[in-house]
# Entry
Amino acid sequence: MTTPTLNWFHWTIDNYIITFHISSDARAICIINLYQTGKRVADIMFFANGTGTHDYNVCGTNTLNPWASLTLHMEELPNIIDLLRNEKPIYLHVPWGKPSGFRPTLTTSQEPVGENETSNP
# Structure
């Protein structure tokens, strides 16, 4: 029996835009657009805590030009902003076709323990 190959989309995130919606009737409270070399490759939409579900979709006209749409809760926004502001490089990995047990990931590269930490003697 062979195991099907899991297809992933991978992007290196080098820029982002954060938009907060002021209107009380806005579906998403905040949206972060993620970019790779000037091209928007993903949107992360944040909803009020306790509303909506974590989900994602891969969109686009074909697999050669995809982009991802992810939804999270507002309580996760500070962690995502911290990652975008303080880490480099940042990678977004999104599985194609929502295979069971696999979720999108936003990651850093391998880093040494205690990087940029100072110690007091």
